[in-house]
Each structure stands twice: as C-alpha cells, then as structure tokens.
Amino acid sequence: MRIPCRAISKGEAEGELIVSRKNFSFLGDVDPETGVVVARDSDITGESIKQKIFAFPSGRGSTVGTYVLLRMKKKGTSPLAIINYRTEPIIAVGAIISNIPLVDGVDINVLEGRRAKVSAFKNCFVEISD
Questions:
Q1: Active-site hit among 42, 62, 119, 129
Q2: Is 62 one of the catalytic residues?
Q3: What are phi and psi of 23, to 5 degrees?
Q4: pLDDT in tens, 90-105
C-alpha cells in the first residue's frame, strides 16, 4: 500500500514499522539511552523505537523533546523515520535538526504491516508492506 503524504524533514528510510495510536513526547515517553518506550499510558510501552519507522498521531508537549530526539540520534537510539497524522512544531524541529525523515498527513489507523518505506521528498509517500 502506497500512501501520499507531506514531507516535513527531508530524507528516505526503510525498515521495521512500529505504530502507536496515542500522541507521543520524546521527553518522558522514551528512554533516550535505549529507545524503549517507558510511558505507562502508551499502547507500546516496553517496545523499542530504535532504528525503526515510528508512526504516531502527533506530539504532546515539551520543547525539550526536540533535544531528546537529537540526543537519541547521536546515540543511535532514534527512529529511522517518523510518520505523523499531524506534526506539531516540537517534533518537526527535532526531526529537522536530527536529520530524521518526517512526514505527515497519514492516517495512522490505516497503517497495518511490518515494514515501511518513507520517502520525504517532493513526491512524498509512505509504502507499507508485510
């Protein structure tokens, strides 16, 4: 399945897909040392976003999350790419300064599959496969 989208932070990535149906903050919802989701109210608590294509509806607060994402990128624990329904500025800036492909305009509820390819360029798309 190929889904059109809007490119926020340019780039391309392909890998395992992990989907959260809940909004996410890089400050407090994830352990930046490991990439494991630690938020108790998350639907993917205990799962790793490290080196995966991470999809979630939108961000939820804290400007410090921008720098947490950059720290994760430097440690190798960040996602390969991010897919949002609606990207908010904190996630956008974090992805841009971290050089992580980020797209939005994707209905998270239709993302079913094990792998994804994100192409965040002029002809932006997300491709989902098993």
A1: 62
A2: yes
A3: -60, 155
A4: 999 999 999 999 999 9
